[in-house]
Amino acid sequence: MTSKQRAYLMSLASNLNPVFQVGKASLTPEVTEAVAECFNNHELIKIAVLKNCMDDPRAIAEAVAERTHSQVVQVIGRKIVLYKPDKNKPKIELPK
Question: How confident is the model at residue 61, as a pLDDT?
C-alpha cells in the first residue's frame, strides 16, 4: 500500500466510530472472529483498545491484521484502523 493510498484511507476512517473494543482480556479468538465477520460488510473498520488492556495497540493491530488477512492503515493512540478490500465488489476505490 502506498502512502497516498494510506492517506486516503485515513481520511475516510476519521469519520468512523469504533466497531469493536479490545478490553482487559486482550485479543481473544472471539474478537478476531468477530472482526473477520465484520469484513464481510465493511472494508474499513476502526477498533478501540481500552485503557484496561495492557497489551501494545500496535502489536494487537498486527495480530488482528495477520489473522484476518487485512492491512493496518494506522494506529493512533489506542485506535486501530484496518482495511481489507472486498474481492468481488470493492466499495472503496484507492488512488493509484
Answer: 94
